[in-house]
Amino acid sequence: MNILQQVCNIEQAKRLKELGVMQVSIACFIGEELHLFNHRLYNWAEQKNINAVAAFTVAELGILLPATPKINWATFFIEENIRFCHVNLNGEPWGAYPNESQARAALLIYLLENQVIDVSEVNTRIATL
Fold first, then answer.
1. Among 2, 18, 47, 58, which is least packed by CB within 10 angstroms?
2. Full-model pTM
């Protein structure tokens, strides 16, 4: 599997940073380029005012999302040889994404933007990483 399918996309990464999510991940985007397992590189980029954002992995996003039975984001299906991850929110279809990491990131962004959860909750969970 391509590593870009295992992290949120760059637009989602930027939005999560704007929303105040702590930038702790095993991957980061510096400019448009993805770097893995290099937190020092992220810190260096931030010190040099180079645009760097955490590229959260599917596993990290699973930790950041709240555990609740009302959110079902793990519904997969294949249509015309394309794999989609469907998100159901409160039992209603909400979105379809090309992979689970983008689905999880989109859901986290939605929950933060609509104040269903607070960024402090997310940052408390991220501290466990």
1. 2
2. 0.81
